[in-house]
Amino acid sequence: MAADFDRRRAVYFAGLCALLTGIAYLDYLTIHEIDLSVFYLLPVGLASWSLGITWGRCAGLLAVAAWGLADWLDDYVYKLPWGVYWASLNHAVFFLAAAEVTGRLRLAYQMVERSAFCDALTGVYNRRAFFTMAEKEVQRSRRYGHSLTVCYIDVDHFKQVNDTRGHEAGDQLLCEVAAALTELVRQSDIVARLGGDEFALLLPETDGVAQRVLERLRERLQGRMDAAGWPVTFSMGAVTCQQSPQSVEDLVQYADALMYQVKHQGKNQLRYELWQEENKCKNKNM
User: Fold this and answer.
1) In which band, very low, low, confident or very high, does the pLDDT at 278 lie, cut at 50, 70 and 90?
2) Whole-angstrom Cα distance, residue 255 to residue 250?
3) Which of 63, 160, 260, 267 is most buried, by the most CB atoms less than 10 A from its CB?
4) 267 φ/ψ sector (left φ>0, alpha ψ -120 to 50, else beta)
5) CB-based contacts of 211: which residues, under 8 Å, 6+ apart?
6) 3-class DSSP state for residue 185?
7) Which phi and psi angles does 193 have, rounded to 5°?
8) pTM to 2 decimal places
9) Burial 5-28, CB ≥16 within 10 A → b, else e
10) CB neighbours of 141 closer than 8 A, spacing ≥ 6?
């Protein structure tokens, strides 16, 4: 996966280099009658925005080289002996500044985007992002007939940790739970913190095997908490949908209701069921 991503970036950058070459050729043909400096900014800005500041800087340096090559090919003579050096420095500062500004704007945009969809404390997805992605996954499963599983997780005795160890320790515990869940699930699965000490998992393309997977996940998660000395357990409610529900909210609420059954029956367990459309009415009576 990483190799494919690096290959795509390399191909994209090669395309930008080809664009730079084309702009330099046009610059050579115009023999400085038309200033094409602004056009050199296009591949520099695209590299910074799409690939990052480092790639943008590389594109900026290549733009300076391409501009200099166009000058050299058309035998342009500067009136001042040091004019070529000044022009080269001027273009280098111009292109590199553009790369830096564009890259910083991209980072700022990503931070704003991340804050809108990620939980500020744990770094996993927040409630809004979870429901947005769950809706897309339900639509996909409806289109292709794939099953999916939603799991609702509550941290038992979390209030006791807050009361005895302080809220800072409680925040640390939530971060460790989020990190463990992220590590224990597949890359295609979604981990979200819905609020407080409640987390949710969205597991696409899972069927009846989801119960065994989630039982194993709960055991491994508990093992990590025990090893770290956290006095908590986990109550989990999960539902697998083999036929897509009409509403994502119905599916999540049913998993939530199953979790609360576990809470009322001694905690530290997984309650798992298959979704049927009549569960929607059953959910209201839980």
Assistant:
1) low
2) 9
3) 63
4) left
5) 238, 240, 270, 272
6) coil
7) -105, 115
8) 0.65
9) eeeeeeeebeebbebbeebbeebb
10) 147, 148, 204, 205, 241, 244
Helix (H/G/I), strand (E/B), else coil: 9: helix
Q: How far apart are alpha carbons 114 and 130 in whole angstroms?
A: 13
Residue 197 · residue 209 · CB < 8 Å: no
The amino acid at residue 137 is E
Write out the two tokens for 271. Answer: 């309650």
Which pLDDT score, from 0 to 100, does residue 1 have? Answer: 46
- The 8-class DSSP code of residue 118 comes to B
Q: Which is catalytic among the residues 27, 71, 197, 250?
A: 197
75 is catalytic: no
Q: N- to C-terminal Cα distance for the chain?
A: 43
In tens, the pLDDT along 168-183 reads 999 999 999 999 999 9
pLDDT digits (tens, 9 = 90+) for 206-248: 876 888 999 999 999 999 999 999 999 999 999 998 776 667 8
Alpha helix (H) ranges present in 74-209? 83-117, 127-144, 158-165, 167-184
Distance CA 212, CA 156 (A): 21
Distance CA 153, CA 177 (A): 10
Tokens 């209030």, residue located: 159
